[in-house]
Task: inverse folding
């Protein structure tokens, strides 16, 4: 079909060529037949050549003008399509050499319009779905926050209230024991304050903005540790830049992990390390807190499952190692795809962090 259409266009050009040739040959024949004597004059020959040239140029001009107009129509339609006017079409004439080309353009424009409409509908549906997911996430976060407040700060405050209520009678009956109760109140209020700071820090997450992961951690991690009275140790060993998506997920995982340390671990110190192996990026967060039994890992914290979900989004996994009285270590591994060498060096760097 394509060859047939191109043949029709070539045939139209051939028609113009034949017309021009026929006019030229006819003119030469007439002159030779009826004006043979006048050919001896150079003036006659010159005017005859001028006439032949004028005829050929006229035929060429008419053909060029007609084709140029058709090409301009196609050009304008293509510009309209490129500007987003997907309803742009070219009117077809019953008999013309460009009919098949125009028809092909109209079919292409209709196909593009149909696909753009489909993409728009999919985009609208995705936007609605994302909005619903966001609303569900907000509701889930509110429920989690309410649960954490009830399990930590609310119970601490209730215990403080009960101890404070019994203090006046204790001062009357046993003043010596009141000092121990006062110390207990101070410890419980201090612990409740730490719990509340941890919850507030989750409500105000820090974003990377235009900083790299290492720059953000060097600024944020020491301040976070000071705020929550933790001895922090940071070790980031990344030779090559990592993708923005991995940096973002790593940062969110670190925030979630440190919030768990503050809320549940009762730790004095925490060590954060990020390094690269041959085929992996590794994030390791370790504390010296109270730890928990392996059988309780799945239910120990909502944050642990959140960290696992974030790692799985990037094809990674999370390993949690904890024992009662021996602290907790969370290790996140994300696949690393690269084509350069340096395998031995990076593997040794990874081993040095183990």
Result:
């Amino acid at each position: 079909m394509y060859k047939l259409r191109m043949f029709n266009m070539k045939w139209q050009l051939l028609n113009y060529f034949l017309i021009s040739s026929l006019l030229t040959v006819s003119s030469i024949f007439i002159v030779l037949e009826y004006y043979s004597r006048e050919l001896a004059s150079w003036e006659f020959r010159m005017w005859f050549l001028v006439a032949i040239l004028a005829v050929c140029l006229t035929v060429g001009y008419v053909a060029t003008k007609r084709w140029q107009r058709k090409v301009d129509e196609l050009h304008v339609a293509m510009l309209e399509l490129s500007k987003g006017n997907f309803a742009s079409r070219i009117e077809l004439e019953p008999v013309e050499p460009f009919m098949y080309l125009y028809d092909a353009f109209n079919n292409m424009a209709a196909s593009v319009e149909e696909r753009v409409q489909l993409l728009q509908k999919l985009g609208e549906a995705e936007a609605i779905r994302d909005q619903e997911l966001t609303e569900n996430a907000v509701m889930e976060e509110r429920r989690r926050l309410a649960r954490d407040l009830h399990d930590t700060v609310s119970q601490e405050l209730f215990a403080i209230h009960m101890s404070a209520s019994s203090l006046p009678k204790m001062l009357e009956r046993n003043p010596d024991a009141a000092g121990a109760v006062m110390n207990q109140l101070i410890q419980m209020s201090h612990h409740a304050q730490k719990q509340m700071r941890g919850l507030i820090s989750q409500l105000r997450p820090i974003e990377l903005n235009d900083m790299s992961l290492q720059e953000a951690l060097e600024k944020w991690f020491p301040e976070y540790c000071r705020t929550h009275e933790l001895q922090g140790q940071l070790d980031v060993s990344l030779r090559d830049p990592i993708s923005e998506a991995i940096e973002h997920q790593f940062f969110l995982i670190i925030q979630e992990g440190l919030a768990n340390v503050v809320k549940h671990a009762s730790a004095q110190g925490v060590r954060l390390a990020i390094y690269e192996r041959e085929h992996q990026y590794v994030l390791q967060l370790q504390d010296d807190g109270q730890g928990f039994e392996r059988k309780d890992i799945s239910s120990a914290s909502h944050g642990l499952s959140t960290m696992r979900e974030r790692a799985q989004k990037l094809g990674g996994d999370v390993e949690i190692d904890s024992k009662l009285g021996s602290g907790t270590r969370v290790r996140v591994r994300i696949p690393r795809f690269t084509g350069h060498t340096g395998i031995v060096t990076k593997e040794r760097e990874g081993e040095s962090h183990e």
In short: DSSP finds nine helices and five strands in the chain.
